[in-house]
Structure formats: structure tokens, C-alpha cells
Design brief:
This protein is of the alpha/beta class. The chain folds into 2 domains: 133 residues, Aspartate Aminotransferase, domain 1 (Alpha-Beta Complex), CATH 3.90.1150.10; 237 residues, Type I PLP-dependent aspartate aminotransferase-like (Major domain) (Aspartate Aminotransferase, domain 2, 3-Layer(aba) Sandwich). The chain contains 12 helices and 15 strands. The strands form 4 sheets. It has a 7-stranded mixed β-sheet with strand order 2-8-7-6-5-3-4, with helices on both faces. Strands 11-12-15-14 form a 4-stranded antiparallel β-sheet, with helices on one face. It starts with 22 loop residues before the first helix and ends with a helix.
């Protein structure tokens, strides 16, 4: 049976003249065609040309395995992978004496590697919040079941702070996002949460997928036990990263194992690589090119000045423009209570998926649905599917104006 969905739409057209690309876009995102507006950076950011070049350079000039070979190509890979590990720690202001950088598939995979290998008998409860992405919400369920402990789901304040009583953190594994993929609200009490959790013998694991591209200041020097994020949300190739304390990695009850993390193997036993904490989360061959590309993305993030502004300042200005533009549309309800690079909304009289299709007809790419936050949006708030607009360093004021004006005409025209 054919299950493909077909949208039958009235004959409506909201065309606009293509605006010329600005010089910044021509330099780093020149592959975008005139009129194309990408507003889904919360899913994955666009990649600037230097990152694409770094990945292509690996595949075309020194495509070797890391950690296994002695010839020149492999030596170069090892050097650049080591550089990326250090660059990640430097970006977060963390010391290699206490933390290690491991590479995985994505944020979800990294969170599962940690939670599903927590040792039995040492965890009192697992604590999370209602506004989590499924990458946190689901693994905390299965980890609590495996460990036979309580799972506590807490509220978050309007400003993103986790609302908790200190006694709830006793021997707890706290797993929360540092920024929501729904409305961008940040975990404003992260430092206090880490302090209070550590004081009661617990650990804090942070889902930083929505922070590493634009909100790293919140994470720097917080001493969380682990920070998981995705490189593809911070202008690099598809890759997951786990930054974890050495003592947490040493305490894991390893069950996901393989080559690359062992120094020797016997018939019924094996020895882990000595002095390499990161390797316990890296069984098998790694995505060497993608790791190298992440190093280049970090360099790029440190040098880019869109419109002569720091990236955070640039995005703050664009976020306010987007928020104001959406708030001015009659018949549109904002989920956000303030401006953010991630803004979700809905029109009660319209289907968000249908609006997204119409926007795509004008080359405007926005996300529709529940954004892998079904529990919070659908079950707890009872909302319909939403429209989400998320900005990146490729975004311009003309992008925002075209998107809000087109959406305004759509909401009015389809009413």
C-alpha cells in the first residue's frame, strides 16, 4: 500500500524577487543560490566553505586510518585528530588533566554510551526535565529501568533554570539540556546545579547540542561531568562529541567494546589502552575526516565576524528581528517568551506542516512538527505541531524579512 502523504493545496503563490547575496555569504556560504533561505540550523547548521575544503582535503590527499599506521598519511591524521581533541577542550575552557574528548556518531549516541554503561549500585536516581529532546528523554527512561532506580522528571523555569530541591540530587545522575531546541531557553543555573549535585555525590551530564554553535559561554568552566554535542550543529560535518571527566570514564561498566580501545586481547580477557581515557567511548574505526573538519570549524568560529560583529552579537540582533517579525503576524502564536536563535510558533487555524510546505514553495526552509520533544509539546502542553525557525551565521536580515512577510501573507491568505 502506498503510504506517501500528498498535500492538496489551493492555487496560491507568494513569490518575491530574489535578493542579492551579501559579501559574507558569498565568501563562506556561496553555494546557497539566490533566494534560498535556510532556517533550520537547530537541526543541522550549514557548513562554511573552509570546513568543506578541510573534509575534501582529507579524502583527496591523505585518506588514512588514524591510530593504526606508521606511514606519513596516518601520522598527519593522528596529529590533526589530536589537535581537534585539544581544540574542543580549549573551546570549553577545560583541562586535559581532568577531561577527555571522545568522538561518536551524534549527541544521542554519546548520551546512550554514557547512560547505558553506568555501573550498577552506584546511582540513587536519574533526574531530567520535561523540556528535553528525545535524545535525553528516552535514554534516561531505559537507563533508570536497567539500573532499577527512580527517574525524576522536573520542571524548568521560563528562563530555563532547572527547578529542584537539593535533596533530589542525592547520588543522582542529572541529564539535562543546556539550551532547548524548542525555544532556545538556556540552563541558567547550570553552575549551581553542578555544585549542588557534586555536593551530594551525583554527576551532571549536559546535552549541549543547541549550545555549542552559539551559546558556549554557559558551558565554559562549569565542571559538568560530561558534555555531549553534535559537530553538525556547529558548522562542521556529521559527528558526535563527548567531553567527559576521566573519573567518570574510568567508572563505566563497559559493554560496547571493540578495536581501537584495547592494547591486548586474550581468549577470555582484554586490556584497555593505557593512558587514553577517550578511547573507551571509541570502539572501531573513527570518522577521521569529520574529526579533522571539526577542528577547522572551531578555527572558523574563532575568526568569523559577520557584518563586523562577534557571532553572538550578530545572532542576538537577528533573533530580535525574527521575534518581532513573527510577533507582528496576526493569527500566529509564539511559544517563545523572548527572542532566541530558535523560535517556535503556530497558527491555531492552520496546519503547521501545510504552512511549511507553502513556505518551501518560496524557497524558505523551516521545520514543522514536534522537534523530537513529543512529551513536552504534545503531552504536557497539548500543542499542535509547530513551525520552528532557527538561525545560523549564514542568516541575514533579508532572510528574516522575507520569511516573516511570506508567512504573514500565508497565515492571512489561508485563514
Amino acid at each position: 500500500m502506498n503510504t506517501e502523504l500528498t498535500f492538496v493545496t489551493p492555487r496560491m503563490s507568494f513569490r518575491r524577487p530574489a535578493s542579492p547575496l551579501d559579501t559574507r555569504r558569498q565568501g563562506d556560504f556561496g553555494y546557497l543560490q539566490p533566494g534560498e533561505i535556510y532556517l533550520d540550523a537547530a537541526c543541522q547548521s550549514l557548513r562554511p566553505q573552509p570546513v568543506i575544503d578541510a573534509l575534501t582535503d582529507y579524502y583527496t590527499t591523505y585518506n588514512a586510518c588514524g591510530g593504526r599506521v606508521k606511514y606519513a598519511w596516518g601520522v598527519k591524521v593522528d596529529e590533526q585528530v589530536s589537535d581537534t581533541r585539544r581544540a574542543v577542550l580549549t573551546l570549553l575552557g577545560l583541562s586535559p588533566r581532568s577531561y577527555a574528548t571522545s568522538f561518536t556518531l551524534n549527541t544521542t549516541y554519546g548520551l546512550n554510551l554514557l547512560l547505558q554503561q553506568l555501573p550498577m549500585g552506584r546511582v540513587g536516581r536519574i533526574v531530567t526535565s520535561h523540556i528535553e529532546h528525545n535524545s535525553v528523554f528516552l535514554p534516561t527512561m531505559t537507563a533508570a529501568r536497567r539500573l532499577g532506580v527512580e527517574r525524576l522528571v522536573l520542571d524548568r523555569a521560563t528562563d530555563g533554570a532547572l527547578l529542584y530541591e537539593p535533596a533530589q540530587l542525592e547520588k543522582a545522575v542529572v541529564v539535562v539540556n543546556s539550551a532547548s531546541n524548542i525555544d532556545g531557553r538556556q540552563l541558567t543555573n547550570l553552575a549551581e546545579l553542578v555544585h549542588d549535585t557534586h555536593a551530594r555525590g551525583g554527576i551532571v551530564v549536559v546535552d549541549a547540542a543547541q549550545s555549542m554553535g552559539h551559546g558556549r559561554a554557559l558551558l565554559q568552566e562549569t565542571e559538568a561531568d560530561a558534555i555531549c554535542f553534535s559537530a553538525h550543529k556547529m558548522y562542521s560535518a556529521s559527528l558526535g562529541v563527548v567531553v567527559a571527566r576521566h573519573d567518570l570514564l574510568a567508572a563505566l561498566d563497559l559493554s560496547f567494546v571493540g578495536g581501537g580501545m584495547v592494547a591486548d586481547v586474550r581468549e577470555e580477557d582484554f586490556d584497555l589502552v593505557h593512558g587514553d581515557p577517550a578511547s573507551v567511548l571509541e570502539p572501531g574505526l573513527q570518522a577521521w575526516g569529520e574529526i579533522i573538519a571539526l577542528g577547522r570549524a572551531i578555527e572558523w568560529l574563532g575568526s568569523i565576524r559577520p557584518g563586523g560583529l562577534a557571532p553572538a552579537e550578530h545572532l542576538t540582533r537577528l533573533s530580535r528581528r525574527l521575534y518581532d517579525g513573527l510577533a507582528d503576524i496576526p493569527g500566529l502564536t509564539l511559544v517563545n517568551t523572548e527572542a532566541s536563535p530558535v523560535i517556535s510558533a503556530y497558527a491555531p487555524a492552520q496546519d503547521s506542516h501545510r504552512l511549511a510546505v507553502f513556505l518551501s514553495h518560496s524557497q524558505i526552509m523551516a521545520r514543522s512538527g514536534y522537534f523530537c520533544a513529543h512529551h513536552y509539546l504534545k503531552e504536557q502542553l497539548g500543542l499542535p505541531p509547530l513551525l520552528r525557525f532557527s538561525l545560523g551565521l549564514h542568516s541575514t536580515e533579508s532572510d528574516i524579512d522575507a520569511a516573516t512577510q511570506t508567512l504573514g501573507r500565508l497565515v492571512k491568505g489561508l485563514h
